Automatic annotation (TrEMBL):
This is Histidinol dehydrogenase. Keywords: Amino-acid biosynthesis, Histidine biosynthesis, Metal-binding, NAD, Oxidoreductase, Zinc. It comes from the Bacteria. Belongs to the histidinol dehydrogenase family. Gene3D superfamilies: 1.20.5.1300, Nitrogenase molybdenum iron protein domain. The lineage of its organism: Bacteria, Bacillati, Actinomycetota, Actinomycetes, Propionibacteriales.
Length: 441
């Protein structure tokens, strides 16, 4: 996550680049090789159906069985082997995510009102019918993803939900992922990952019911598959490799900044992390602190590569300039470690989710402990979307009904506009009604 040369003209204040990625690589989700691979896989699966899905499951993920469906009743035995503390933590995350999603749902209200005399318009929220949830589990089993997708879809009232997760453990799905899914209300689950999972849900290859919408984060292949399937099915957001940015002033410590940057950099070797600060001291100390903390981090190979190749630090002359930089970077997660948090909350607009102050951190929300969603836009998508929430599973449907007396107020202007556009079919719909009221007068 860094500024491109053409971004600089959008920033009116002055700033100094302390660190930027050495190369100018495109983010992995736009890698042409990934695009090509995914296109080929989707074509193959569309043509060859379940045979192709099983082939990819075996070749890419070492799947060993013949049936991708997971028997959740059988999985109960494995759940007992999971540590009790883990089961409790997963129950807590599932519950908190559900509570927040239900609160959000309550704040989305149906209404209807008379917009002009005799014309009533309204909106009502209706859940999507068939949703396919993707629960990533390639590099790590991301347990909380089930809360964010299955659990939130349930809170939205989606009637039919299927879930897929890669057979990442010895050719089988990870029991902790299954437990988290079950705690979130999952009923039908399949041990299949990546492109083949998304295609199987979109094409209805698993249970014969094509998903209307596919949701969930994943690696670059997953994000690209969703991008290419969009249109055939709805998607939530292009949630690719995780990112984090920190805005910090003189009050922040390099220790906390570095810990929170590395907390996301460990997701993958191309997971970007960025610091934008008004403090020269903090900028310099963070550079050293990143190296120091990396030495002791078990995931240092991944996180170290991410930081070296995709990390950045900018020193801004003031907080407004720092915000202008952040408006452009539009990070998935944005932490503010600074004074006057309400000012930042009011000023900032481009982020997937915002973490205000030292007592909030991305890791809490990642694991479902605050209740907000962690399926969030990456690669600057936060300029136009806030990511997955209960709203993502709802259609905001509109309707209208009018009285006979309201005919002239709509039909007359429609005749005028249609005549000008030379669309006689539209004109006739309006004119028919005008004639009817004329006849009866
Ligand atoms: N942006 C968000 O909201 C968000 C949220 C959670 C996780 N994430 C991201 O999700 C990602 C999870 O990635 P992951 O890899 O651990 O798990 P994953 O489940 O997304 O991907 C695993 C799948 O990738 C496929 N795959 C791997 N190599 C392939 C290849 N060469 N060709 C075709 N398919 C291939 C395999 O089929 C496998 O099933 C991380 O990058 C993490 O940062 C993002
Ligand atoms: N940071 C990821 C969202 O981008 C979500 C996650 C779950 N567990 C760990 N991280
Ligand atoms: Zn994370």
């Amino acid at each position: 996550m860094h500024l491109n040369p053409e971004d600089h003209r959008l920033i009116s204040g002055s700033f100094t680049v302390i660190k930027e990625p050495p190369g100018r690589d495109a983010p992995a989700q736009q890698d042409p090789k990934v695009v090509e691979t995914v296109t080929g896989m989707l074509r193959d699966i569309e043509q060859n159906g379940m045979d192709a899905v099983l082939r990819y499951a075996r070749d890419l993920d070492g799947f060993t069985g013949d049936d991708l469906e997971i028997d959740l009743a059988k999985a109960e035995a494995d759940f007992a082997e999971l540590p009790e503390s883990l089961r409790q933590a997963l129950d807590t995350g599932a519950e908190r995510t559900r509570i927040f999603a239900e609160m959000q749902r309550k704040h989305l209200v149906d209404f209807s009102a008379e917009v002009i005399p005799g014309v009533e318009c309204g909106q009502k929220y209706v859940p999507v019918g068939n949703v396919g949830c993707y629960l990533p589990a390639g590099r790590f089993p991301l347990l909380a993803s089930a809360f964010m997708t299955v659990g939130v879809a349930r809170a939205a009232g989606v009637p039919n939900i299927v879930s897929c997760t890669p057979p990442s453990r010895g050719g089988q799905a990870h029991p902790a992922v299954l437990y988290a899914a079950k705690a979130s209300g999952a009923e039908r689950m399949y041990a299949v990952g990546g492109v083949q999972a998304l295609a199987a849900m979109a094409f209805g290859l698993l249970d014969g019911v094509p998903s209307d919408m596919i949701v969930g984060a994943g690696n670059a292949y997953v994000a690209e598959a969703k991008r290419q399937l969009y249109g055939k099915v709805g998607i939530d957001v292009l949630a690719g490799p995780s990112e984090v940015a920190v805005l910090a002033d003189e009050t922040a410590t390099a220790q906390m900044v570095a810990a929170d940057l590395l907390g996301q950099a460990e997701h993958g070797p191309s997971s970007p992390a960025s610091l934008v600060t008004t403090s020269e001291r903090l900028a310099k100390e963070t550079l050293d602190e990143m190296d120091r903390q990396l030495e002791g981090l078990a995931t240092r190979d991944i996180a170290g590569n991410a930081w070296r190749e995709y990390g950045s630090i900018y020193l801004a002359e003031d907080r407004e300039t720092a915000c202008q930089i952040m408006d452009i970077l539009a990070p998935e997660h944005l932490e503010v470690l600074a004074d006057d948090l309400d000012w930042w909350l009011g000023r900032l607009t481009n982020y997937g989710s915002l973490f205000l102050g030292e007592w909030s951190t991305v890791a809490y929300a990642d694991k479902g402990m605050s209740g907000t969603n962690h399926v969030l836009p990456t690669a600057r998508g936060a300029r136009y979307t806030a990511g997955l929430s209960v709203l993502g599973f709802l259609k905001q449907l509109t309707f209208q009904r009018a009285t006979r007396e309201a005919t002239r107020s709509q039909a007359d202007p429609v005749v005028t506009i249609s005549d000008f556009e030379q669309m006689p079919g539209h004109r006739d719909s309006a004119q028919l009604r005008l004639d009817l009221i004329e006849r009866d007068n």
